[in-house]
Specification:
mainly alpha; binds magnesium ion; globular; Hypothetical protein af1432; single chain
Length: 377
């Protein structure tokens, strides 16, 4: 750290000192970061992953997650998760696990806040429709689109395009975008955010589906994981109201999965004598659920798929959203003059179909519906 910084922060612990004390040897340290594409001076008191976290938090694609659906639309009430509250829950669960394992919480938080930033309106229905519309030019994936936002689209800083995030955050997202590639074994922090994402949606989709009346707890008890959670809850409490029972079940579901990951990985990491993050990345240890919980989770996910994601009401919303997206996409191709000027400029380098797809992907559900009603219905 330069002498200027030392004067600015007399007596304060720097992030390097903090990481040296708090992180395990296998955690990703800021001082070992491969850095950013465009070199920038060091910040006096925020570490590189903290700065990434802040850049993500302040970008417009992040704020728009509040207007994007996770599984259930805004017309269905205001209890259920949006893409933004899902993201917060992932970050919270990931940090809990990361702190217990002495991993780099700043990196974990940045990765978690970033992970769904490329989601188009209307969740996976929207993604599937855009993928179809862009089939001839390489398709659309929300994981890849997050990287395009961060590297090209979100222009808000002087001196470089995009957010100029660290390689560790970009590479972590790159692994999400290329899940089929077995050669990409990511940092433990990246694996952890992936595990936390799954813990989070399994728990909150269960909660939301029951709250919205698409499922009853009795129906859910067909699933062995839910039966086991209900048994644990009933062992501790009696006479819970249906509302408190549902919420206690969800807390139990999160706690059970988090504890399982910690049991599964904690002991292995503690005894493996890993010297650094790269060694840990290449080691056979993975941050993931045990085989038992993995199979319980896939039974729950199959149940949710059949009974919730394929519920007639969700299918109706899905079909409506996809039909609108297809019409909007065709509409902008026909009338590119409706695109904002900077997107028109971008179309000169990446082509019109890709640009239209990117513009639509940035829309909230509400804005997308509005554009549809106003110009393309
Ligand atoms: Mg997610």
């Amino acid at each position: 750290m330069s002498s200027d910084n030392a004067i600015l922060l007399p007596g304060l612990q720097t992030y390097k000192e903090r990481e040296a004390v708090l992180l395990a040897p296998y955690a990703m340290r800021s001082i070992d970061s491969k850095g950013r594409k465009y070199a920038e001076p060091e910040h006096p008191y925020r570490g590189p992953f903290q700065r990434d976290r802040d850049r993500i938090l302040h970008c417009s694609a992040y704020r728009r997650l509040s207007g994007k659906m996770q599984v259930f639309t805004g017309e269905m009430g205001d209890y259920h998760r949006t893409r933004l509250t899902h993201t917060h829950e992932v970050a919270s669960i990931a940090r809990t696990i990361g702190r217990a394992l002495q991993l780099n919480e700043d990196l974990i938080e940045a990765l978690a806040l970033f992970h769904d930033i490329g989601h188009p309106p209307f969740g996976h229905a929207g993604e599937d429709a855009l993928n179809e519309c862009l089939r001839d030019v390489g398709g659309f994936s929300h994981n890849e689109h997050a990287l395009t936002i961060a590297e090209e689209i979100d222009v808000r800083y002087h001196g470089f395009p995009g957010l100029n995030l660290t390689s560790e955050v970009l590479d972590g997202q790159g692994v999400r975008a290329d899940k089929q590639n077995p050669d990409l074994k990511p940092l433990l922090e990246v694996q952890l955010v992936d595990a936390a994402d799954s813990i989070t949606y399994d728990a909150h989709d269960t909660d939301d589906a029951v709250k919205l009346g698409l499922l009853t707890l009795d129906e859910l008890a067909e699933v062995s994981l839910i039966r086991e959670m209900l048994r644990r809850v009933n062992e501790r409490y009696s006479n819970l109201s249906p509302r408190v029972l549902r919420q206690t079940l969800v807390h139990e579901l999160i706690d059970y999965q988090v504890s399982d990951v910690l049991r599964q990985c904690g002991q292995l990491l503690a005894t493996a004598e890993l010297q650094n993050a790269q060694q840990a990345r290449l080691s056979p240890i993975s941050i993931e659920p045990s085989d038992l919980v993995a199979s319980q989770k896939s039974e729950l996910e199959k149940f949710l798929y059949d009974r919730v994601y394929r519920h007639p009401e969700i299918i109706r919303v899905r079909e409506q959203a996809q039909s609108r997206l297809r019409k909007i996409f065709a509409g902008y191709l026909r009338e590119p003059g409706r695109l904002p000027k900077r997107y028109l400029t971008r179309s000169e380098s990446v082509g019109l179909p890709r640009t239209v797809g990117e513009y639509i992907a940035g829309m909230t559900d509400r804005f997308c519906n509005e554009q549809y009603e106003r110009h393309f219905s």
